[in-house]
């Protein structure tokens, strides 16, 4: 579930730094306690259709089975699982939203099947192992929020060896893009610096204090904020100017936390637009509902957050801008090194290192600088 | 210092609930680590002029003296104290902003006088008691952020019996106001509810889940957000439609934390505008720099955040809207019961209970409902 604000937990797999629960709540969980936020996600038709169809077109996975919904929120996936024939659904939710989920379950007459448990997934004890783990855990660019850790933990502890995961697979994509945001953000940055210089002069004149020593850290802070922080956007497909490439493939039944602590890829993408401006890169994801090898889906469903005219989602894409943008031509080949890790101070946020070289059709190699980005 | 976001600490006086430091940082302190935020406060000319004049027109308080700056931020007050002749200034700052303050002090050649200490005020140990405590601790409506607790703690531990506080006094004000915000917020609320009802219908139609049981909590959440949360605004003086009244007076040299845990007042205000709409109430504050009885200021300075055409501050006023607004006439007398306490989950936020009765000039008494507000 994509959430604007993320201001970390123990799992069975080797974990990142152990996160204080109170701090994790203040930084992250608290946003999920609001019905307004749940409604935003429940109003995302692409998201809702994908999970709805995945469940109801694969009832064989649910009929008579035990199901675990990790991070049930309002309870929607647990309710669908029950309506699709589950014998028992454990709906785990760390925030007070669990109380609303409980009411919703009762109002839909499913309290004999769905048990809502207000607890963090890492701490919960279930009376049995389950046949299905269903969860909508995806954050911006898939891994922001690091909620997938909780799903992996749940799988390790509570999924039967023969069990299936909903979704079963996930992929991260990257593509070169054009966007007016690159001009807007540079302009915002320049305005902030102009304002700063005026402020420094005034503070010296009126108040006798020389602030120039702070210019460098102020500029760095504004560069990080305006130029180096990835942006949420729902891009139009015609803003994608080269072939999208897969930078990570995840089999949800086997992936470990270690596998996702550092997402690295070396890929290349050919520019497809004739004469264009490479303004940066967009990252997005898709997930698939394929069941398992032993127990496949009857109807495979895909949920994609790729740029789309009509089927945008609340996740949008994450846009990493290049300053300055560069002119690019059809056939130019971009060679990209991508590396994403968790932020030290907050495991739910990410840092990205992105290196790009352009091999032009003429043969000339244009090296571009290595760029650091922050997914906040 | 007014700060948009606040997401508490042990003092010598009987404290509120002890606050986890990590949580307090995630909820509150972190916003003060940004230079952009410091610049906002440093660009507030009314704020800057008041403190600047208070210090430099009362050098006798600083010359050869030991000074403590509580929450030094960028270090500005500490620097002025040193420039006004202090022998030694202890500039205490809980966030990494202390590093910038240290650089600023050095760049202004005051490192022999100003010692920046990166520590929370409640934990710091100073080598001596001080003659002056200077601090800009005021939040929206004076007490939001509860930073004054740290100043009281500092006073109890580190101020000499003969010492002075900058500022020395503070007052909270309330006044009846008119504002188009009342219509805007009601409209926002109604839009949110209309949207919700459409959402409930669609979720039933498309997804077979009856969300009606959540309508009541959703409405309550939106009422709290749109109608019951006080708003930041810089009001024009002609929006004040009745006599402003003082609801709290504080002598900074004697006030205790207990005195400010619950701010209560029963006051009355006469409507001064001819035929107007009582849309709610505005709260603001002023502080004064008067020195102490034994050691008064030579030049008393006032810093006010009252509605002003030309001298608005970054604090603005806090606006508490009445839904629905009521017609009011010159001479109508408003009898108000005001009570403000700290929010249970976060001692840096406030809750307000406000009861209002109108005695019209005809003699008729109009009781108005008791209203609960949240200062977030």
Helical segment tally of chain A?
9
CATH topology descriptor of the largest domain in chain A: Hnrnp arginine n-methyltransferase1
End-to-end CA span of chain A: 15 Å
Oligomer: homodimer
Class computed from helices, strands and strand pairing of chain A: alpha+beta
GO molecular function (chains A, B): histone methyltransferase activity; protein-arginine omega-N asymmetric methyltransferase activity
InterPro entries (chains A, B): Arg_MeTrfase, PRMT_dom, SAM-dependent_MTases_sf
GO biological process, one term (chains A, B): methylation
Protein name (chains A, B): Protein arginine N-methyltransferase PRMT10
Key features?
Arg_MeTrfase (chains A, B); 16 strands; 3 domains; alpha+beta; homodimer; 376 residues; Protein arginine N-methyltransferase PRMT10 (chains A, B); Rossmann fold
Describe this protein's structure:
- The structure is a homodimer of 376-residue chains.
- The first copy, chain A, has 376 residues and is of the alpha+beta class.
- The first copy, chain A, has three domains: 21-166, Rossmann fold, CATH 3.40.50.150; 171-178 and 231-375, Distorted Sandwich (Hnrnp arginine n-methyltransferase1); 181-228, no CATH class.
- In chain A, 27% of the residues lie in helices and 33% in strands.
- The first copy, chain A, has nine helices and 16 strands.
- Chain A has helices at 21-27, 35-42, 45-56, 76-83, 97-107, 148-158, 181-207, 215-227, 257-261, and strands at 66-70, 88-93, 114-118, 130-134, 159-166, 169-177, 231-233, 245-251, 262-270, 275-291, 296-304, 317-329, 333-342, 350-359, 365-367, 371-375.
- In chain A, helix 6 links the parallel strand 4 (130-134) and strand 5.
- In chain A, helix 7 packs antiparallel against helix 8.
- Chain A is globular, with a radius of gyration of 23 Å.
- The interface between A and B is large, with 46 and 46 residues.
- Chains A, B: Ring-like homodimer.
- Chains A, B: InterPro entries: Arg_MeTrfase, PRMT_dom, SAM-dependent_MTases_sf.
- Chains A, B: Its EC number is 2.1.1.319.
- Chains A, B: GO terms for molecular function: histone methyltransferase activity; protein-arginine omega-N asymmetric methyltransferase activity.
